[in-house]
Fold this protein.
Amino acid sequence: MAEKDTLKRPDLLTANGNYMEEPLVNVELAQDIMDVCRSMSLWPMTFGLACCAIEMMATGMARFDLARFGAEVFRPSPRQADLMIVAGTVTHKFAPGIVRLYEQMPGPKWVIAMGNCAISGGPFKFKGQYNVVEGVDKLIPVDVYVPGCPPRPEGLLEGLFELQRKITGKRWWPVAKQVGECS
Amino acid sequence: MTVFEHFRTLCIAKGNRASSGVDWNVFLERDYIVDAAELLKYSGFHLESVHAIDGAEGMLINYLFDHFTQGERICLRVLLNHEDVTVDSIAGIFQGAEWHERETYDFHGVMFTNNPNMVNLLLPAESEVHPLVKAPKKRVALAELLSCGEIESQAEGFDLLNQKTEEAAQ
Amino acid sequence: MSSETVFQTRAEDSIGGDFYAQHFQEGCEENTLVLNMGPQHPSTHGVLRVILEVDGEYILRAEPVLGYLHRMHEKMGEVKSWYQFIPNMGRVDYGHPLAWNWAYVGAVEKLAGIEVPERAEFIRVITCELNRLASHLLWWGAYLLDLGAFTPILYAFDDREAILDILQRPTGSRLTYSSFRIGGVQTDLDEKTVQMIRDFIPIFRERLPMYKALVTDNIILRKRVEGIGEMSPDVIDRYGCSGPVARGSGIEYDVRRNEPYSIYDRFDFEVPTEDTCCAAGRYLVRMEEMAQTLRILEQAVDGLDKAEGGCIMEKAPKPNWKAPAGEAWFAVESGRGKVGVHVVSDGSKTPYRIKLRSPSYSNLSSFAEVAEGVLIADAVSILGSLDLIIPEVDR
């Protein structure tokens, strides 16, 4: 269908040569408002694999409270989520599953690689390693990297703010001030 | 050690719990491991672990058993030749051994015959790599690695630990 | 796109799925459904996949498939040096990493005949017991979340944050601690930390009756855990289960009491046991263990001032230290059960073989037998009552 379609516009072709529909309301202001709405209500998928999952849970709990920033509704099903926080180590055995889950998410979708294992294999990258995928970006495209082993919940929150900045173009929340020495 | 009093063993050594954590080390021929496991089950022991150590003389399979009330830990040890790493499975008696044996197969390539579900457990399915098998020149003699303690009885021709005891005696 | 590129089911492809699903389906009966529970599913145990053969809602056969988080710890034990392996122990079990720290460091100290100063033993006991509280709180909150209760996990994590603030001071991390060293611990407990612990104990002691009234006595929870997942003592023996799983079936076995290590023989605490052999028994054992842990903490904090020595031995092993040749096995009681580490050394700068014996592995291996004939919802309850941490199972 795409090859013979003479009305196709080159800017609406994706990287694989598939044809993407034009937005219904193609006004920039409307798209910007949609972007703000999307970034303020990201729905993460419960994709905690290992230790970073506990810090992700702690970020959703009362002390650090991810709900303030809109991302509290953790959906178990990828079809209802638009943010995949890869929290933990990706192994060769699980890699096909991750790709399948990513493909099941409807667009627009984003990925945060949380923790050193998801960024580059982390502490499990050594000479002679045989089962760890060195970074989830070898499998799926990643938008924001949050380093740490595991990153503090504040780190994950900053990663979320960075993602919101990537979607909307600006950072919405104040930068934390340093109040003094750690006692 | 009354449990194995009338059992045919290759060697029984009394270990020291304070220095090595194991009370008894019993070396067996591979054909007797199932009967030994049945004896231990009858005496109320439970299975702690099944794992292998790759040494120069062969592949040593360790079966660790512990008792909830008697406070005695027994390690059954079976030495297999590197060319023929096969042994009978004890999963018929201790069902928990099924997973331990599959893991030993994953890491060391040891084949446990009659294991009800002999597929890869931790490695990807149908994986042929056995990552913990050592290169032949990196293997170390088991006599240097093991701390079996005092030998109480030893069968004819069993000299795996003799080198160590001679050094200890000096 | 032409119609040939659209997916078409092939008539001869009667068995679908990957290797494990196909292997499982070979033993299936007629007219049953094969369901994959995991490896991505909303309960927080981690990356566990259980293939279920169900007839309606009843499970006929279950088979856990492991390895989705196999991170090669035993291989790393042969590649990393003696010191470099300690952070691995922080990541094997993120619920109670200090117990694994202790198991490894204790095995190496047993092998090398190293004696740890008394103050370091007290610090080890204090930090490990605080970690046990954090682990049990995490289990409690996550279990109730699986069963559908959204409130207790908020309370549990709130208490956990208080513990994590205390543990952050001597260890430097919030979750994956590696603060034990061969010969002692990394940092001493300063005055402020000890005061924080002293303040924390009565506050937490007051919370426990509230948890009991809100959750443990709640009729909905009782219906979900009583009578679920019967594990007789014979099952415990055959699979080698330990910890609260064994104590919930009437077997009074706790490594701290039956095989005391370090200074645990000095403390006066009970080992809670229940006879019900079901998930309710395991639940009540863990709740009572939290109260007993507070008793140990009080006694340890009181004894800390009179302890001799520093936080690490004199002339502690340097990072390039080599252990003498030999082998040692050391067992420790973690929140999940008996942790065992078997260390084999050939006198070189890396271990020859490290075998990690994890309690969740043995506990989970009983699931295939225990889950026969139960409802799927009850299977979720059984898995939660076993208190699994999957990185420990897969290592």
Notes: Residues 14 and 22 of chain C are 10 Å apart (CA to CA). The beta strands of chain C are 33-37, 49-55, 58-65, 180-181, 184-185, 326-333, 338-345, 353-357.
